[in-house]
Amino acid sequence: MFIFVMEDTAWMRYVGFLRAVRLFRLLRVLRIAKVKARIAVLAQLLHILQTQRITDRGFLILNIVKSLMVITVINHFTACCWYAIATLMEDDNNWVNVHFKDQQRPDDLLYLYTTAYHWSITQLTPASMEIYPYSSRERIFNIAVILFGLCVFSSFISSMAQQLHALQQLSREHRHRMSILRRFISEHHMSVALATTIVEFVRQKRGPQLQRPLKIDDIDMFSNFPTVLIHKIRSETYHSAIGKHSLYQYIYEEERDIFGKICNTCICEKIVDKGHEVFAAGDEGYGMYFICHGKLGYIYGMDDDVFDPTDSQEWMRMADGADAGHRQCCFLMTGRVVCEVAMWLLWNHRGRLFGDSVVTDLLFVQVEPFREVITNSSMLKDIRLYARLYALRALRTGKEGQILDDVWHEDETIEEISRLALHGGLEAAVTTLAANRATPARILKAWRQQAQAGRLRRTLYRPARQRLCEWLRCCFNSDPGESRELD
C-alpha cells in the first residue's frame, strides 16, 4: 500500500508538469490573440484613413501600402512556420543545421529571421536562394506554400498592378493637360510673367481643391434619399458651421424645427475659386456669409476692376498700403462671418470680396426666406429685438467715426446682444418701462443685476445709463430708420 501511494504521488508530479505545459500553451495562445488584436487595430486605422479627405492619388497609394502590409504580415508568419518546422524534431536533417554548418555565416537571431523571411518571399516570386528543404516535412510545407501563393498572392499582385496602372493614368492625364497648356502659351507668344502666373495658378489649383470638405451636392447617393432624411442631413451639416453664431445656436437649442426650416429654405452653398468675385462695392446686400473652408480677400472702397486678385505681388502692395490710399485690405479665414449687417439693415456693399485661396466654400443665408420663416414662427419677438439692438449698435459704429464695412463683426458685442435679446436680459426692464413704473435709477439697478448674472462686458464708450436707455428706446421705436422690419 505504501508503494502504491508513492507511485500515485509521482503521477501527481507528472500531472503538475502537464498543467505547466498547458499553461505555457495558453500563454502562447494569448500572445497570438494579442497579435490578432493589433492587426485589427491596424485594419481599423487604415479604414479611418480611407474615410478621410484624401485625393485620388492618395487613395491609390494607400491601397498599395495596404496590399504591401498584408503581404508583409503573411510572409512573416510563413517565415516563422518555416523555422518552426525545421527545429520541431531533434534531427540534424533540416535547413537550419545544414545552412549554419558554415562557420563563416553569422549565427545571430536577426540573420536567422531575415534568412527565413527571404525564403518565404522567394516562394511568391521567380527569385531563388540557397535555402532548400532537406526533409519530407519541409518539402510538404514548401509545396503547400507554393500552392497557397498561386491561389492567394496572385490576387494581391494583380490588385497592386491595377493600382499602379491607375496611378500612372492620373499622372499621364496631368502631364497631357500641362503639355496642351504649354503649347497654347507657346503658340500665342505670351509673356514670361503671364506664363509663369498661369502655370503657378494651375499647380496651386491641382492639389488643394480636392482637399476641401465634401458638400451635400457632391454625394450622388443622396439624390435617392427621401426628402425628410435630406432635411435632417442639411440641418446637422450646416449646424457645424452656423452654430458658432450665438443667434443660430439659440434657434437650434430652442426651436429645432425652425432651425431645420432655415437650413433647408434659407441657406445655399457657394463655391468661390481664386480671384472670383463674391460681391462688389455698390451691390445690394441680400444676406450674410459663413466661411466654411478656404480664405477670402476683402478691399474696402474698391469700385473698379483694375485690381487683379490673382497677382500676389499686386495684392501685397495693396495690403501694405502703398497703393491702397483710403482702401482697407484684409484676409478672412475659415469660421469668419461676413456681412451680417445686411440681414438687419438695408445695405449696399462697401467693398469688394473675392476668393483668395484655391477653393473657398461658403454658406449664404438669404434675407427674404429667413424673414418669411421667422415671421411665421413663435420666435418673432426675440429675433425682432435682436435685429433692433444689432441695427442700433451698427448705426452707432458709423456715427462714432469707425468704419462700418461688410466685414464688421465684433464677437463680444454679438454675444452681449444675444444675451440681452434672446436670453431675457432686458425682459424685466422692458416690462417695467412699458408699464410706466420705472425710474432711471431702478432701470440702471436692474440692468446691473442682469449684467452681473450674464457676465456682460462693457465695450462701448458711452456711460452705462445712456447706453441702456438707447437700447430700450430702440426696442420701443416703431420706426428703426434703415433697419429691416420683421413683420
TrEMBL record:
Transmembrane parts of this sequence: 59-85, 140-159
Keyword list, A-Z: Membrane, Transmembrane, Transmembrane helix
Entry keyword Phosphoprotein: no
Keyword Transmembrane helix annotated: yes
The name this protein goes by in its record: Cyclic nucleotide-binding domain-containing protein
Organism for this UniProt entry: Effrenium voratum
